[in-house]
């Protein structure tokens, strides 16, 4: 094998395109000394809001803090049930628990890997019948960049007077029915962890919303709940600000994002062409455009996955397992899950359990070629 390696992610190739701009921007912040709340934070917020077509963007310190600030603003806490998919990154479940609320895990669809609306409705009904917890919020996750069924989530939240929060951490740039993520639900949480579709050089995140009152609460909560004047604390908040340096780096990287998303879509199409019909792929619902944060396939079982992953490794093709355990099996969350719905306990989560044994993510970043994607797919196909 003399083929060059294909990495799962590449967070450095992009730098060559904008290095002078990055260096100029970083030097300007160093010269200014405004390391917190510099003007670059507001510049980034305006750019994010314009890109997503939303009224307000609020920069925060990470995707996890974005989720936490959004739930703190609603007053989510003890006695509240927060419904979220069992197959997602741990941060989605961690936040309600940190706030004293109870996560209620919902199964996902086999085709989209996103929250299953029928199962969501069933679990809300179970919680209501029991009357112990108050159905309070739904966190929809756009897993691997593919939008969840937001029209259905919004309809359920409107009917039940629940808060709809979009965990779009993996999906910035995706759209649904012609509308970029950010306007779906009451608010959307973004992560700029380095490997996301828009990545910082450290931790960073943002909240997007059309609701001016919520945006104001988010600004207050990210700065220790400070009100109109400094040291006038109106609400219990946190230190959740976005650094000026990360903001200016993200401003420079925003100039590349449209082209990068277009390349991600080309790579996704190349993978789909090569793999559909042979392995499970994530299928977009009508009107959904994937941002391809990750390209993830579904293999028949854990043995096939181990075999394919070993072959990819031998061919110097990167791969990863997102996620090897559904959240209700995580030691830290199992007790909360068991206690979330009483009686006979919560219904099973068979699709989430199956996916955790079957999924495998293949290289996906804008600085690889469609030939790279076809080569990675070829290794999968010859090792099924
Ligand atoms: C990355 C991620 C988060 C957390 O973002 P951080 O910036 O790492 O805190 C939350 N939810 C999902 C689905 C994620 O992928």
TrEMBL record:
InterPro entries according to UniProt: DegT/StrS_aminotransferase (IPR000653), PyrdxlP-dep_Trfase (IPR015424), PyrdxlP-dep_Trfase_major (IPR015421), PyrdxlP-dep_Trfase_small (IPR015422)
Entry-linked CDD domains: AHBA_syn
Signal peptide bounds: none
GO MF term list: transaminase activity
SUPFAM superfamilies, per database record: PLP-dependent transferases
Pfam families, A to Z: DegT_DnrJ_EryC1
Keywords assigned: Aminotransferase, Pyridoxal phosphate, Transferase
PANTHER family in the record: TRANSAMINASE, UDP-2-ACETAMIDO-2-DEOXY-3-OXO-D-GLUCURONATE AMINOTRANSFERASE
Annotated family: Belongs to the DegT/DnrJ/EryC1 family.
Annotated protein name in UniProt: Aminotransferase DegT
């Amino acid at each position: 094998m003399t083929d060059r390696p294909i990495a799962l992610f590449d967070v450095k190739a992009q730098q060559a395109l904008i290095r002078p701009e990055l260096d100029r921007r970083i030097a300007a912040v160093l010269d200014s000394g405004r390391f917190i709340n510099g003007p670059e934070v507001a510049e980034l917020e305006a750019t994010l809001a314009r890109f997503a077509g939303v009224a307000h963007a609020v920069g925060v310190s990470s995707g996890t803090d974005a989720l936490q600030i959004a739930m703190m603003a609603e007053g989510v806490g003890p006695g509240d049930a927060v419904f979220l998919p069992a197959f997602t990154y741990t941060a989605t479940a961690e936040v309600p628990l940190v706030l004293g609320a109870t996560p209620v895990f919902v199964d996902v669809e086999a085709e989209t890997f996103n929250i299953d609306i029928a199962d969501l409705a069933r679990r809300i009904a179970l919680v209501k019948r029991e009357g112990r917890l108050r159905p309070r919020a739904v966190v929809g996750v756009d897993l691997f960049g593919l939008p969840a069924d937001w029209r259905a989530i919004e309809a359920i939240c409107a009917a039940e007077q629940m808060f709809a929060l979009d965990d779009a951490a993996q999906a910035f740039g995706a759209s649904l029915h012609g509308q970029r993520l950010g306007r779906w639900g009451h608010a959307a949480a973004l992560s700029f962890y380095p490997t996301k579709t828009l990545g910082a050089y450290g931790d960073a995140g943002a909240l997007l919303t059309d609701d001016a009152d919520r945006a104001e609460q988010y600004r207050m909560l990210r700065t220790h709940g400070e009100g109109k004047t400094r040291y006038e604390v109106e609400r219990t908040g946190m230190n959740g600000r976005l650094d000026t340096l990360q903001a200016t780096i993200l401003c420079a990287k925003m100039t590349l994002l449209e082209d990068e998303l277009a390349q991600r879509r080309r790579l996704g199409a190349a993978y789909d062409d090569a793999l559909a019909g042979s392995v499970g792929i994530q299928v977009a619902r009508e009107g959904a455009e994937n941002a391809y944060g990750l390209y993830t396939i579904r293999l028949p079982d854990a043995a096939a996955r181990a075999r394919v992953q070993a072959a990819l490794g031998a061919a110097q093709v990167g791969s990863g397992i997102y996620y090897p355990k559904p959240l209700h099996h995580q030691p830290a969350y199992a007790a909360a899950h068991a206690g979330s719905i009483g009686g006979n306990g919560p219904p099973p989560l068979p699709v989430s359990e199956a996916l955790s044994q079957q999924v495998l993510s293949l290289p996906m970043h804008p600085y690889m070629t469609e030939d790279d994607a076809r080569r990675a797919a070829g290794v999968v196909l010859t090792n099924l």
